[in-house]
Amino acid sequence: MSDSALLRPGAGPDDDLVTPSSGGPAGSREDAAGDPRAQAGAQGAALAGAEGSRPRLLLVDGHSMAYRAFFALPVENFSTTTGQVTNAVYGFTSMLINVLRDEAPTHVAVAFDVSRETFRAQEYAEYKAGRAKTPAEFSGQVGLVKEVLAALRVPVVEKEGFEADDVIATLTTQARAQGFEVLVSTGDRDALQLVDDATTVLYPRKGVSDLVRMTPDAVEERYGVRPQRYPELAALVGETSDNLPGVPGVGPKTAAKWLAAHDGLDGLVAEVDQLKGKAGQSLRDHLDQVLRNRRLNRLVTDLDLPVVVDDLVVAPWDREEVHRVFDALEFRVLRERLFATLATPEPEAEGGFSVRVARPRGAAEVRRWLDALGDAAVGVHVLGRWGAGTGEATGLALAAADGTAAWFSLAAAAGKAGTDGEGPAEAADGPAEGSVLDDEGRAVLATWFADPGRAKVVHDAKGPLQALAGAGLAVAGLAGDTALAAYLCRPDQRSYDLADLALRHLHRELRVEEEEREQGEEEPQLTLDVDGPATPEGAPDPAPGAAVRAAAVAELDDVLAAELAERGGTALLAELELPLVGVLARMEARGVAADGAQLRALEDQFAATVEEQAEAAYAVIDRRVNLGSPKQLQEVLFEQLEMPRTKRIKTGWTTDAEALADLLVKTDGHPGSGFLVHLLAHRDASRLRQTVEGLLKTVAPDGRIHTTYQQTIAATGRLSSTDPNLQNIPIRTEEGRRIRRAFVVGEGYESLLTADYSQIEMRIMAHLSGDEGLVEAFRSGEDLHSFVGSRVFAVEPADVTPAMRSKIKAMSYGLAYGLSAFGLSRQLRIAVEEARGLMDEYFERFGGVRDYLRGVVDEARSTGYTETILGRRRYLPDLTSDNRQRRDMAERMALNAPIQGSAADVIKVAMLGVERAVAEQGLRSRMLLQVHDELVLEVAPGERDALEALVREQMAGAAELSVPLDVSVGVGTSWHEAGH
């Protein structure tokens, strides 16, 4: 029913709540993943109930909480690469994970409204009339919420003709009769009438992350009545969002006083003639209305539902379905929090790994053990630290798929045992000095690693290879990377943790399997084949865990290789992604030189601009406000300056960047536009200052910035850059280009050279579609967008105006990403009909593009996947989904993946070619950065001409297309100067 009952005029739904003084957690926290309760999780709670403790039922009002999540999280910050808005789904799912963790229910269900056509609307036609239209961005997200719930195996309960409140009330009544404790998570205050000693409402005080516990005492403290009287109070005062008018002149305090004096609404009605004053007369005049309100806000407690409480036992969630749904929604961080916070489904693992760990140290022992491995691929797991282009291994394990394993300690002394993975190692008791690999043994191991004929398989290999190199163990013969293989099999998965892959593909956990024993035998100790002294008593022994991981890698390699072969990705792994690992590792180690003084000067300049623009904005309105506060900006823009309203949101009128940019265009000449100009300039300068601050923090002692490249993030195959993200350095504004000036040529080199592809995605579109018009445009050498514009607008190329060209450019690229007429209209700020007409004209002139776009979706629907020119596949099962939103998302992915994925493949081929050619020609010049379609290289003295010719040849020849690959080259002493 009402999401905001008892609202004063102009009040927000959260304005009249206070934090109750009752005990218990006041809500959930995003940073509480480490809470000890997380170890129990929702699944563990079911066992507690079975053992005799009081069972606990959690009921969630799905629509209410999703709607609040929608307004709590900025739309612009939550969307997939295909444009599907996901803020409501994200917020709801985050809230649910937290509540399941914090409350550990034994039973759970989520209720939804089916429609507004309920018995209440039949009695009172104006019920809920006048509610604001549901935002377009929210539409469809309820369906996605239900998909998340299905993956988590949380029952969804609905009843035609009734509301979610009635479903919740019915289940609450049943549960209390069976001795349950009930928790109701809802933003609808009509649920407060359910509160009693066994029932608590978890009400969202702020967004959906801060939940207030509304107990009987809390309800009375806030409203002056006990929970069972709350709907009577609401009947007198009215419920704004349900369009139930209250008695004029009667507020909550008067209503509560009357109900207390007359023992409730029935007694008040019986003695209504005794009430004095204007308020009493007003009640008599509107008594029928009050009684109708009470009939409508009374929750139904005896519905005939398709489930009973016993059907709502918390079940293990569907791990595979969680992967699928979260992959499609691109909820990488949220999935990691789900796995870390709630107990994983049981039973999924069939066991652990059986390993026997040798500890060879001397040359003879090491050689004998390595020779025994034969020619089979060997799993490698490295302990140590790596990042920013460098690393150092402190230990490693090698293992065959049969569980034969060896541990090699590389630690120089105690206290340097290292960590299992990337990052700085905390001090720990290291292995005993006698267990460390000696110099001769280390030399034998180094020879083995350097032998390209000995196949090695590593999980997420780039970091471990950097660590091994730092320990003097250069690696050749990398035959597999289980993270990359899993990524190529399922590029939408987003998480490729080794433990997760072992469970998914091997159905085993990363633990040492215990030996079987007869009943009555003592618990066995871990069996190890120890050829050297053990670690000191009490010190953690890294060998078994490392050996298990190495064995898992070796076994996973075989399983993933078979799956990859079925999906046509074997060559892509062997010939493109694996060779690229070494190239990226070397690029990260080289880094790019940064002018620290220039960066600091830029930081000061942007900080000064922030202050200047703030002062200029204050001068327009003649007062100081917090320019980062949406609430204060709303008051300034729409009340003080009386500017046109933007899009309505839960907290008022949006002040996000897109809305304010649109507002500035619409209000040119408005007295308040000056404030808007300074506000937007303030935001831009703040963003640029933050960018520079981030860069300064990453300048290494060698004066260079070493980014980290990731191959398994983007489903289309594009590389990602992080810590810092050098693919996100602004280039379209002069202020942003100033940042690129701080990236300079390093000592011992004469210049930077940049090379990029011109309009590569449109060239791939021309190749894939075979459209004669597009092919002719590229072969003619004319400006593409002017050429296309001349065809669409029926004018000579010379007569294509900048406005025409801009429209054609936006549409040409937009079509490759599934842009709709509505999306084009928003991007170009034109009417939807005009945008649709423009698209029709485009397709009339370039029918090959239209046919290709239709065909690629149809083919993907038939085969189940899309494919790039190099055979990179993206499987899209949602193309046949019954859910329209999911189907639309998949169709946009089908349009996007072949073009953007092919562009990613081409630049990767070019990188391999450039790196190989530089080595073959014996040049000192080197490749430093890849930024989407651009390469940045450092030119050694005297090598410019040779390097430019080499780069042009390798990039232009990276793919055989029906149109030429055009490469632009620039040279300068800074990244900016080398731009072109």
From TrEMBL:
Enzyme class: transferase
DNA-directed DNA polymerase family A palm domain: residues covered: 736-943
Region of interest (Disordered), residue spans: 1-47, 512-544
Tagged with keyword Transferase: yes
Catalytic activity: DNA(n) + a 2'-deoxyribonucleoside 5'-triphosphate = DNA(n+1) + diphosphate
Enzyme Commission number: 2.7.7.7
SMART domains: 53EXOc (SM00475), HhH2 (SM00279), POLAc (SM00482)
Domain 5'-3' exonuclease: 53-315
Pfam families to which the protein is assigned, alphabetical: 5_3_exonuc, 5_3_exonuc_N, DNA_pol_A, DNA_polI_exo1
Stretches assigned to coiled coil: none
Biased composition (Acidic residues): 512-524
Any one Gene Ontology molecular-function term assigned to this protein's record: DNA-directed DNA polymerase activity
SUPFAM superfamilies: 5' to 3' exonuclease, C-terminal subdomain, DNA/RNA polymerases, PIN domain-like, Ribonuclease H-like
CDD domains xref list: DNA_pol_A_pol_I_C, H3TH_53EXO, PIN_53EXO
Keywords from the UniProt entry: DNA damage, DNA repair, DNA replication, DNA-binding, DNA-directed DNA polymerase, Exonuclease, Hydrolase, Nuclease, Nucleotidyltransferase, Transferase
UniProt biased composition (Low complexity): 35-47, 532-544
Top-level taxonomic group: Bacteria
Role noted for this protein: In addition to polymerase activity, this DNA polymerase exhibits 5'-3' exonuclease activity.
NCBIfam families xref list: pola, PRK05755.1
Family (UniProt): Belongs to the DNA polymerase type-A family.
PANTHER family in UniProt: DNA POLYMERASE I, DNA POLYMERASE NU
Protein known as: DNA polymerase I
Naturally occurring in which organism (per UniProt): Pseudokineococcus basanitobsidens
Gene: polA
